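R.M. (postdoc): so does anyone remember the format we settled on? I'll just put the structure tokens first.
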């Protein structure tokens, strides 16, 4: 049977094992849970809007020795399927696309640790997790939800901040998501990266990813990868800037997928009062772990 490619309009959230997912992502979740990766597969995991696409493009360039042309062979969602994605984004579901590819495959997920198919851990698959500070993630997600017409309506900004703090957005609580992977990172050999570190010193982080992938590329190739994956270059690259998704799904006239790509942009949106309330709540939720997030440089 062909995958259901119906484009949903402003889907509602549906709980899957306690985690809210847009209804079209929740619909066939058993197929996602049953997906069994090959030990050579690589998972790029993140809470939405944390720099996933950036890491994916770096990984693909590393695996292709910095060859920009090879990495323009297809859109990022065809090169690295989105594991839990329904068919309207790419004509096929993420699982269907993956089954058509030979390992080693690279795939993306936003699932919290406990919802990732257990085969990834049983097969000791390499996993890169990228985390971004909560306030910039909040702002990026808000703008993304405005332009992603298939996903839930974000509603007004003030209420959106509350939903973020309560974990009432797609893929659930940012706080539980980052804590879940952080706590498992050593046991599961997860490479835990920070968006802010990538901005501060992209070359250092590209080298870190290269080592994790057991690759050894020349200094020139590393420099080329850093250059090809700047925000400005990725914004203009049609294979990564999501202009390959039809306007009926991602209306980038509302907000670009590659919007600002900055650290500390939240200061332009959160009032002093909103920021103080957010910080107070953050302290409560994050006090038991010491994850070194930076909200500014
Ligand atoms: S998604 O839809 O959840 O997979 O989105 P994701 O790729 O995780 O995050 C999108 C945000 O990452 C920014 N981005 C970058 N920043 C800096 N450099 C590069 N190369 C880069 N590529 C993507 C993108 O602009 C989104 O952040 P905002 O703050 O909205 O600009």
């Amino acid at each position: 049977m062909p995958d259901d490619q119906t484009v949903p309009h402003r889907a509602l959230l549906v709980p899957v094992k306690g985690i809210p997912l847009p209804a079209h992502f929740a619909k066939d979740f058993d197929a996602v849970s049953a997906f069994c990766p090959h030990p050579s597969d690589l998972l790029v995991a993140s809470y939405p809007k944390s720099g996933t696409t950036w890491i994916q493009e770096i990984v693909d360039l590393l695996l292709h020795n910095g060859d920009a042309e090879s990495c323009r062979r297809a859109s990022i969602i065809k090169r690295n399927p989105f594991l839990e994605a329904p068919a309207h984004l790419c004509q096929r579901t993420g699982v269907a696309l993956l089954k058509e590819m030979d390992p080693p495959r690279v795939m993306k997920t936003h699932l919290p640790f406990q919802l990732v198919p257990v085969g990834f851990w049983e097969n000791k698959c390499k996993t890169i997790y990228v985390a971004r500070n909560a306030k910039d993630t909040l702002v990026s997600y808000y703008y993304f939800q405005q332009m992603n017409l298939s996903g839930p309506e974000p509603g007004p900004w003030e209420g959106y901040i509350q939903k973020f703090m309560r974990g009432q957005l797609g893929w659930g609580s940012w706080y539980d998501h980052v804590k879940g992977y952080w706590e498992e990172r050593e046991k599961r050999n997860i490479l835990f990266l920070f968006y802010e570190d990538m901005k501060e010193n992209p070359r250092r982080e590209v080298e870190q990813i290269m080592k994790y992938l057991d690759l050894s590329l020349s200094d020139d190739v590393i420099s080329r990868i850093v250059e090809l994956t700047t925000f400005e270059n990725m914004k203009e690259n049609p294979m990564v800037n999501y202009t390959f998704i039809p306007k009926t799904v991602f209306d980038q006239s509302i907000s670009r997928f590659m919007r600002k790509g900055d650290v500390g942009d939240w200061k332009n949106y959160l009032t002093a009062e909103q920021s103080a309330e957010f910080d107070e709540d953050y302290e409560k939720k994050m006090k038991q772990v010491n994850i070194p997030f930076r909200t500014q440089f």
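R.M.: ...and that's the designed sequence above, right after the tokens. Also worth knowing: The chain has 14 helices and six strands. Residues 185 and 192 are 7 Å apart (CA to CA).
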